[in-house]
Amino acid sequence: MRLFPFIFIFLFLSACSHKQPELIAKKLEHHPVGYLSYWSWVKKFNLETKIHTKLTDEVTEYLNLWKESYDLTPATNLYPSQISNENFEHVFRYAILSYPRMHKIRLNKRLKAIFLVKGLGVSTIMVELKSSQTKHTGQFIAFLDQEVLNQKINDWYRWRELTAFKIDADYSFNPYLSHENNVVDTIHYTMAHLFAITLNWDPKYYPETGGELITKFDSFELIKESWKLDNEIISPKFASFPEDLNYIRYYTLDDKLFTTKDMPEFYSSLLGTNFPNLFALSSSSKDFIESIANYMHTVVLDKPFSVDIKNQGKIVETFNSCWQQSRCQSKRKVIEKILEFEK
After folding, report:
1. What's the half-sphere exposure (Cβ side, CA atoms, 13 Å) at 277?
2. How many CB atoms neighbour CB 36 within 10 A?
3. DSSP 175
4. Where are the alpha helices (DSSP H) in 32-113?
């Protein structure tokens, strides 16, 4: 069983270079909040009833342990919307109410609680709850950073990209993920991420350990769509993109290796792959989650997805959603098969 949360968007644990202090790790492992039994009081009502802005002392302690363990700090260089912190909860609840019923039901089956918090520096920390009765409970709690989510979706995507790229004054980029460009769409995309994370924890779809990723590689259909196993090394199976892409890292603070000047080449190289965006090729796990979330956003919710990259104001590269293109049709079928099974 994996003992760590999924820190998202996406600070997957392998991206964190800080080793857990033994004491914090022990506290996290045995903290009552991390166990399914702690949440026995949660009723099987709708998802809206599981949203919380006030944390108990125990839940606050548990969250602070994760923050301390992975040096999580408040996000910087955000593009905040005009929604005040006081009103964000109302907008969030409206976004949940307006989310398609089928997808709310899917999430509601798996989530015990959603906490709106501040200071994570990433969108989500999501934890699978433990139990002495079963290896996988399939039940989760999620902490969402309302400061990160309180960005209009096009701004949120721009912010995420700039956690991996330094700004070159001559090169700008304009993501387009919504006609309305509002915070509700950002929350809806995040809901798709949450659902995809729950699937990522399911051993039917993704291996529990790095060792299983190697020994059982052929068992995981969605991973095989974009990744290959060669001499016990998992890598993208496409040869069409620059080697530098192997070193792209999101949510870095001071060690960004690339600038926005590199974006035209990087995005252009994706056209020979079935990755929906640059973020997806960061790792097989991120690809699994981002591909499902991006598919749900663009196909299921019928939203746009494109990125225009400009050099001194002139468009030099446009990257569009792959789900209507031949390069992603096989991967799309696998995702649709998973979503159909999980109805």
Report:
1. 24
2. 20
3. E
4. 57-69, 85-98, 101-110
Render pLDDT for 24-37 as a digit per residue (tens, 0 to 9).
Answer: 889 999 999 999 99
Q: How many whole angstroms separate alpha carbon 48 and alpha carbon 63?
A: 21
Cα(70)–Cα(74) distance, integer angstroms: 12
CB 276 within 8 A of CB 328: yes
Per the CB < 8 A criterion, the answer to whether 61 and 34 are in contact is no
Amino acid symbol at 319: F
pLDDT attached to residue 293? 98
Cα-to-chain-centroid distance, residue 11: 8
pTM score, two decimals? 0.92
Neighbours of 98 (CB within 10 A): 11
| Integer CA distances (angstroms), 287 to 213, 224, 276, 284, 293, in order | 14, 11, 8, 5, 10
pLDDT in tens, 142-184: 999 999 999 999 999 999 999 999 999 999 999 999 999 999 9
Phi/psi of residue 155, nearest 5 degrees: -70, -40
Using alpha carbons only, what angle is made at residue 135 by residues 129 and 136, rounded to the nearest 5 degrees? 50
